[in-house]
Design brief:
With 500 residues, the chain is of the alpha+beta class. The protein has helices spanning 10-16, 67-79, 186-204, 243-262, 308-316, 322-333, 337-345, 349-357, 362-370, 372-380, 391-402, 408-419, 425-432, 440-453, 455-462, 469-479, 486-496; strands at residues 18-28, 83-84, 91-94, 104-107, 114-123, 126-139, 143-147, 159-163, 170-176, 216-225, 235-240, 270-275, 280-286, 296-297. The chain has a 9-stranded mixed beta sheet. A 3-stranded antiparallel beta sheet has the order 4-3-14, with no helix packed on it. A two-stranded antiparallel ribbon has the order 7-8. The longest helix has 20 residues, at 243-262. The radius of gyration is 30 Å and the shape is elongated. The chain starts with 9 loop residues before the first helix and ends with a helix. The structure holds zinc ion. Residues 34, 37, 39, 51-52, 54-55, 168 line the site of zinc ion (ZN).
């Protein structure tokens, strides 16, 4: 349903309606082989080169479950505070789609591997506990490519190609419980949850969780109700492909549903598609005629019965999770909530921590990563971790500054060299001949020259007009190619002119 009224403001919608959100996230696991066969899982391989009779579903082939994928799913479940089933089964989900070579998907239905957990997310100084309904394991589908259409969609395409390389890659689905009560913060909570989940899965080292490559995919559920009223009908917006889009999809769907309700209409339960270009959702298929998937227990696989001792072992071996780590570092480094958030938002936590481990002070590490290096990353349009400078480089640079061999200004020139791939800071100092001129003889000579060339300024300083020393400091800095410490130079000039 569309409305002809002008778009409502988000603030107005959030003031009058209470949203309930829910998120379904798919994580493609980074196992070496597929879920039920030995095919490799490398991203970007030539189409249809990583396939076999099992993942193509050829008659007579039999699946065998991948233990590494089951282990990864249990670890995700444990990290999300879930209970792990002691016995559960895979289920066959029947539907016909060209990128599903078997015409069914092996998934889990009423017996998921992990249930009833939670993930805490921090947002604007408060903690929101997002309940986790279930975490289950399934296999991914292939990929369809529509050629010839303007937008890569099937409409207008002249041909469609199918690549089955992805078919059968292990996929973990993480479903939240409905999250009510977040009010106007709902879009932020949705984004913060997916961000936290991504970081958590990454810390477990079970997936590269790259949204742009599709190894983390998100569906966003939204409904609106009047405050205190019964929950409204929800829509499900599919395949939202970036963190920013998660936030935008919730916001735009809230505004759209409010428009429908304001006009006296009824929100239809349906699947919707998010459009990056307009930031809006459009109607997909109606859930009221949802396909009957005719789920039944997968007859070709034995039930899953994870040994409780094994699960306990996996739990004991979980790494420190991102939120706990942030809290520990914030305390250790004495940072305010705001300072910690800036570091998180810049993607700098890990880099700063590694720089401190490599010997730098937390202050120096933060200063370089959040200052100079963030500027470089922004200018180049890359992540901070991809700027070409390692924590070891930054620690080395900080040490050279502490030893008085580099000024901040020289250090920035040295960093340019590191970014350009010329080597380590010490190597660049040698190759480019950069070093603070601390040799007293060389500095004294430069100072005498500056005094001789700027007699007026020197006289003023001698007469007590100390502000005039700036001209002389400038001249010495130019003469040394900015390779002297300005503070030292100033003190030496004042001493020389008897004004100190
Ligand atoms: Zn295969």
């Amino acid at each position: 349903m569309s409305t002809s009224t002008a778009a409502l403001s988000y603030e107005d919608v959030a003031a009058r309606y209470a949203p309930v959100i829910g998120l379904e996230t798919h994580v493609e696991l980074g196992t070496r082989t597929k879920m039920f066969c030995g095919c490799p899982t490398d991203f970007g391989a030539e189409p249809n080169t990583q396939i076999c009779p099992v993942c193509l579903g050829l008659p007579g082939s039999l699946p065998v479950a991948n233990r590494a994928a089951i282990e990864a799913t249990i670890r995700i479940g444990l990290a999300l505070n879930c209970s792990i089933a002691t016995w559960c089964r895979f289920a066959r989900k029947n539907y016909f789609y060209p990128d599903m070579p078997k015409n069914f998907q092996i998934s889990q239905y009423d017996e998921p591997l992990c249930v009833d957990g939670y993930l805490d997310v921090d947002i604007e100084g408060q903690t929101v506990r997002v309940g986790i309904e279930r975490v289950h394991l399934e296999e991914d589908t292939g990929k369809t490519l529509h050629i010839g259409g303007a937008t890569g969609r099937i409409h207008g395409a002249t041909e469609s190609l199918v690549d089955y390389n992805r078919a059968g890659i292990p996929l973990v689905e993480i479903v939240t419980k409905p999250v009510p009560g977040t009010g106007a913060l709902a879009p932020h909570v949705a984004r913060a949850y997916v961000t936290e989940l991504r970081d958590l899965v990454r810390s477990l080292d079970v997936s590269d969780v790259r949204m742009e490559q599709g190894s983390l995919r998100c569906d966003v559920n939204v409904s609106l109700s009047l405050p205190g009223g019964e929950w409204g009908t929800r829509t499900e917006t599919k395949n939202v492909n970036s963190l920013r889009s998660v936030e935008r999809a919730v916001r735009s769907e809230m505004i759209r549903q409010a428009g429908v309700l304001d006009a006296g209409g009824r929100v239809k339960q349906e699947t919707r598609h998010f459009h990056e270009d307009t930031g809006e959702t459009t109607s997909g298929r109606s859930k009221e005629e949802a396909t009957d998937y005719r789920y039944f227990p997968e007859p070709d696989l034995v039930p899953l019965a994870p040994d409780t001792a094994w699960v306990a072992e996996l739990k004991a071996a979980l790494p420190e999770l991102p939120r706990a780590r942030r809290q520990r570092l914030q305390l250790a480094w004495g940072l305010s909530d705001f300072e910690m958030r800036s570091m998180v938002n810049a993607g700098a936590v890990e880099l700063v921590e590694e720089t401190v481990t490599a010997g730098a002070s937390p202050e120096a590490a933060r200063k370089w990563w959040l200052g100079e290096l963030s500027r470089h990353a922004n200018a180049a349009g890359v992540e901070l971790s991809e700027v070409g400078v390692t924590p070891a480089h930054v620690a080395e640079l900080a040490a050279l500054i502490d030893e008085g061999r580099l000024t901040d200004k020289l250090a920035r020139t040295v960093l340019d060299g590191v970014i350009a791939g010329e080597g380590s800071p010490a190597e660049i100092m040698t190759s480019r001949g950069i070093e603070v001129v601390s040799d007293a003889g060389a500095l004294t000579a430069a100072i005498d020259e500056a005094i001789a060339a700027n007699a007026d300024a020197a006289d003023k300083v001698r007469d007590g007009k100390v502000a005039a020393v700036g001209v002389l400091v400038g001249a010495v800095m130019r003469a040394t190619g900015n390779a002297a410490d300005a503070k030292t130079v100033r003190e030496m000039i004042l001493a020389r002119l008897g004004a100190a």
